[in-house]
Structures are given as C-alpha cells and as structure tokens.
Amino acid sequence: MAEGRSIALKVCGNRDNITEVASLNPDYMGFIFYEPSPRCVGVGFNMPTELPKSVKKVGVFVNEEVEVIKRIATDLKLDFVQLHGSEPVEDCQTLKRFGVGVIKVFSIDTTFDFDTTMLYEGAADYFLFDTKGKFYGGNAIPFDWNLLVNFHQRVPFFLGGGLTQENISGIRNLSTMNLHAIDVNSGVEDSPGLKSIVKIESILEILNSKF
Predict the structure, then answer these.
(1) pLDDT by residue (tens digit) across 27-84?
(2) How far from each other are the two terminal CA atoms of the chain, in whole angstroms?
(3) Homologous superfamily of 8-208 in CATH?
(4) In terms of CB atoms within 10 Å, which end of the chain has fewer, N or C?
(5) What's the rounded Cα separation, in Å, for the pair 128 and 182?
(6) What is the mean pLDDT of the chain?
C-alpha cells in the first residue's frame, strides 16, 4: 500500500473518470463487470493504459463463469478478481491457480455465520465484508462493525458498505483486527460511476494521517 498508510484504499465502481481517480494513487481500483449494476463498465471496456503500476486493478464479478473471468482478467491485465456472489470455493481455487489474486465477498447482517468464511481460507487472498441488502453491493449503508468480533481474523479483509469521509474514522475501533483496506464506492460519487475527487482526497487525507 502507499507509503504512510496503514490501511489501504480501494475505490470501486470506476467508469467515467478513471484516470482522474488513478492520479490520486489509491491502492486498488475496482471495475464492475456485472451487467445489472449502474456502474458496469460494459462489454468492450478498454482499461486505460496510463494507470500507475502501483494501483492494483480489480475486476468485480457476480456468479460469472470462470472462463469468462479468466478471459477478462487476461485481456485487461487484472491484478485481482473480486467475487461478489455465491461463488463456490472451487471457483476461487481455480482462479488462484490461474494466477490472479482473489477477493471473496461476504454479505453481512446479524444472521451471518462467520464460520462460513473458513471454507475459503487458502482459496482467497483477501475477504471483503459488505452489507447484506437488496443488491450485490452498492447498498450504501454500513453494517454493524461489532459483528466482526465473530471473525477469526486469520485472513486479511477489506471493509465495505456505505463508507464515507464522515464515518471512516470509526475504523479506529477495528485496530486489533486484520483489516487490510477500506472499500469505497457510492460514498465517494457524484453519480453512479463518476467519482468525486474531493471526497476521495478527503478519505486519503484521513488514511494518510496518524490513523
């Protein structure tokens, strides 16, 4: 992650001002390949060639065929794939063997059984905990972070779900946990797919401080 940050930043749902966001040097940038999403980059998407090498490119998929994911990962030189649906462990293992990093998403509410994550240990490089809601991500509300005490912390994780510059200071309370990165999306947007540079800069300022 960038020097000075103890917690990495992933900006997800990029589409309309990709190079402008990349110039801020987030640690990860996410590109959604799930057609129902209002932030989907669409068929025929071309990754800008001028992105800094330090920015890891993440393709976001929901219950997509593994061969399709492989093709897109190869064509766009993705560093990671983020699996946001009900993908089985075998899909994660296949993609890891293929040579791309794997982020497995779990949708969290008060009924979630964190023992479920144990099946994916070794099959994913990171977990991502997001808010369970009507949509696969993009529900724009945080879940109760106190639930994370039920996670075994053996796998580093991304924290998603309605994160904004107004509420990320609360992640100080997760300092004893294996938190690798925060994942922002709708909370840093002017409209779906168009990111607010001012809002991202504000979050980076917080993360770059003595957090």
Answers:
(1) 999 999 999 999 999 988 999 998 999 999 999 999 999 999 999 999 999 999 999 9
(2) 15
(3) Aldolase class I (3.20.20.70)
(4) C
(5) 9
(6) 93
Distances in whole angstroms, Cα of residue 22 to Cα of each of 15, 86, 162: 11, 30, 21
- Residues 132, 154 contacting (CB under 8 angstroms): no
123-161 burial, b for 16+ CB within 10 Å, e for fewer?
bbbbbbbbbbbebbbbbbebbebeebeebeeebebbbbb
CA–CA separation, 61 vs 86, rounded Å?
A: 11
Backbone angles phi, psi at 121, to 5 degrees: -60, 130
Q: What is the pTM of this model?
A: 0.95
| H helix or E strand, kind and range, residue 162 | none
Tokens of 10: 């992933």
pLDDT at site 5? 78
Residues 6+ apart with CB under 8 A from 98: 70, 73
In angstroms, the CA 93 to CA 130 distance is 22
The amino acid present at 185, given as its one-letter code, is N
Whole-angstrom distance, CA of residue 118 vs CA of residue 165: 32
Please choose, from the candidates 142, 193, 163, 178, the residue with its C-alpha nearest in 3D space to the C-alpha of residue 15: 193
Using alpha carbons, list the distances in angstroms from residue 140 to 6, 82, 133: 24, 18, 9
Amino acid symbol at 112: F
